[in-house]
Amino acid sequence: MSDIFHINSGAESSTDDADIEYEVETILGHRKKHTKGATMEYKIRWKGYDTSYDTWEPEDNLDCKAMLVDYHKNVVNN
Prior knowledge:
Low-confidence stretches: none
Strand order of the largest sheet: 4-3-2-1-5
Distance between the termini: 27 Å
Number of strands: 5
Largest sheet: 5 strands, antiparallel
Shape: globular
Order of helices and strands: EEEEEH
Number of helices: 1
């Protein structure tokens, strides 16, 4: 598994050009959404992008399980 966020643009294409992938550099924080069926969201720093591009992403959008485990270990130990 890699530390990748995958976006399907919805465009119909026979190539993978319609899919965009971003690599997670680090997890900066977390919060629980206060809506029905709420999930955890994580503030993400994207590799190759500055802080103005940091975003809050639902856990389901992320494919960086090892990074999430490490993040939670560090939060508990601090």
